[in-house]
Automatic annotation (TrEMBL):
It comes from the Bacteria. The keyword Signal applies. Keywords: Periplasm, Signal. This is Glucan biosynthesis protein D. GO terms for biological process: beta-glucan biosynthetic process. PANTHER family: GLUCANS BIOSYNTHESIS PROTEIN, GLUCANS BIOSYNTHESIS PROTEIN G. Residues 44-529 form the Glucan biosynthesis periplasmic MdoG C-terminal domain. Belongs to the OpgD/OpgG family. One of its GO terms (cellular component) is outer membrane-bounded periplasmic space. Pathway: Glycan metabolism; osmoregulated periplasmic glucan (OPG) biosynthesis. Pfam families: MdoG.
Length: 531
């Protein structure tokens, strides 16, 4: 808009009238852009997202393809990584707030533009894309490919999580409905998702995505940052709210309201995704590697409604494995990284001993259902091959709001819990004459106080078709904990087909724990033995 110039003369007006006229004209001139700005802002609350999800549920699914130019999608990984957000331009950096936001550029795998709104005092305003926020490195022609109306692929949250002097990453929301976080002193490891649909089903998995975000601007005294997200997919829409607090344990209080568009074979609530290539319990490695272990998580932990704690070591199977663990009104589940000894990894770059454990703590009763663990064979650590989630026994009704509330706890260090002892290592080896010997180390401060000859008993049970022998419990002087060992041997002859395809044999379920008289000392260790 060009500057306004006064007329050459106003012979009919006195000086006071001229000043009044110019005051009115100035107000009219400045009101237009101010009004335009006001029109961009809209009242906002969580109900806004719920209403959007409900309305979106009544319309056909739009995959939002074609928003990102092909030239950006054709970038390789190194080229896309070369497009970096300029840290000095982080949102709220100069306002001395406890959180800052940085943004990701679309391209490569990230083929959708995700609108992001900033909510200030109950009003939401779109955050416009600006290429000057990014350093494009050697991608000199990329800015020329960006359309006039563009957006971001995702964002990351920074805060004083490790020191009050510097802001480090706390959490990232990027790609489909994926997000991840770290606690103090940690590096990124496993991820979470908004929702899992038809994971490991024959017809393929459906990946919902967060199609829009609203981020509430914090005050200088805020201890948390609130993020709202609109979820969309072919079969479901949803409204999500995350209240995020970084710290020694980073927490996310999640409220998810779902609207099913169509029936699905399986829905996964609070899904977690991780990587397990090989560990101490791996019989045969699929790769030759200098490292003793390679994994972001080493086990699944479940707390049942009855109060039992249940531990399942992870593995990299030969064939796809799907295991269901009954968990009505589940009180908690998670993928944990219990091993924090650098000597067990020997990786100066990956720092897998510093990967977080992620614990899901449901609020209220979720009803009848089970925790499902999916393990996908892989020979590369770049693949997240482990998935865990809770799934209801009954299908969710079409078009009717279903709300799940839970807390995600991203733990630093070893995650401790009420049982007196927990499994710290699981090993096995072949036995001459057939069968397999299992050696499990249990430990805790309480177990370390128990000395021999305390009559600690090992309780081991196995499924049909196998027998337990050679059971032995002893103090481990090197760890201070206790070691349980036993042999499992199949007492059934394999069928003709199983002799040709030994990997097709039905695995034998094993459960073990330690007790002292009538007192259960440890969680229940569980494993699937493939004879």
């Amino acid at each position: 808009m060009t500057a306004m110039r006064p007329p050459a003369s106003l012979p009919c007006l006195c000086k006071g009238q001229v000043l009044l006229l110019w005051t009115v004209l100035a107000l009219i001139w400045t009101a237009a852009p101010a009004q335009a700005e006001a029109e961009k802002a809209a009242p906002f609350s969580r109900q806004t997202v719920v209403d959007k999800a409900r309305q979106l549920n009544k319309t056909p699914f739009d995959p939002a393809a074609g928003q990102v130019p092909q030239a950006l999608l054709d970038l390789d990984y190194d080229a896309w990584r070369d497009i970096r957000f300029r840290p000095e331009k982080a949102l709220w950096k100069n306002e001395k707030l406890p959180f800052q936001l940085q943004f990701f550029h679309p391209g490569l795998f990230y083929d959708r533009v995700v609108p992001i709104h900033i909510v200030t005092k109950g009003n939401a305003k779109p955050l416009p894309f600006d290429s000057s926020l990014f350093d494009y490195g050697d991608n000199h022609t990329v800015p020329e490919q960006i359309p006039d109306q563009f957006g971001f692929a995702g964002f990351r949250i920074h805060g004083p999580i490790n020191t009050t002097k510097y802001f480090d990453e706390i959490a990232v929301f990027l790609g489909a409905s994926y997000f991840r976080a770290v606690a103090k002193g940690q590096v990124y490891g496993l991820s979470a998702r908004g929702l899992a649909i038809d994971t490991a089903q024959p017809d393929g998995e459906e990946f919902p995505y967060f199609r829009e975000f609203w981020i509430e601007k914090p005050t200088r005294k805020s201890s948390s940052l609130t993020v709202h997200a609109l979820l969309d997919s072919k079969s479901c829409t949803g409204a999500y709210t995350f209240v995020i607090r970084g710290g020694k344990t980073t927490t996310m209080d999640v409220t998810a309201t779902l609207f099913m568009r169509a029936p699905v074979a399986k829905i996964g609530i609070a899904p977690l995704t991780s990587m397990f290539l090989f560990g101490e319990n791996t019989d045969e490695r699929k790769v030759r590697d200098f490292r003793p272990e390679v994994h972001d998580s080493d086990g699944l932990l479940i707390r049942n409604e009855t109060g039992e704690w249940f531990w399942r070591p992870l593995d990299n199977p030969v064939n796809l494995e799907v295991n269901a663990f009954q968990a009505d009104n589940v009180r908690g589940f998670g993928l944990l990284q219990r091993d924090h000894d650098f000597n067990h990894y020997q990786d100066l770059e990956a720092n897998q001993e510093r990967r977080p454990s992620l614990w899901v703590e449901p609020k209220g009763n979720w009803g009848k259902g089970h925790v499902e663990l999916v393990a996908i064979p892989t020979d590369k650590e770049i693949h997240d091959n482990i998935v865990a989630f809770w799934t209801p026994d009954d299908a969710l009704p079409i078009g009717v709001a279903q709300t799940y509330e839970y807390r995600l706890n991203w733990h630093a260090g070893r995650f401790t819990h009420p049982p007196l002892g927990y499994a710290t290592a699981s090993r096995s080896g072949d036995v001459e004459g057939g069968g397999k010997r299992f050696v499990i180390d249990f430990n805790s401060k309480a177990l370390q106080l128990l000395r021999q000859p305390t009559p600690i008993e090992g309780v081991v049970t196995c499924g049909k078709g196998a027998a337990v022998s050679g059971l032995h419990v002893e103090k481990n002087p090197h760890t201070g904990g206790w070691r349980l060992s036993f042999v499992i041997k199949s007492d059934e002859e394999p069928s003709a087909l199983e002799k040709v395809l030994p990997n097709r044999r039905t695995p034998i379920d094993i459960r073990a724990f330690l007790r002292l008289k009538d007192t259960t000392l440890t969680e229940t260790w569980n494993y699937a033995y493939h004879p």
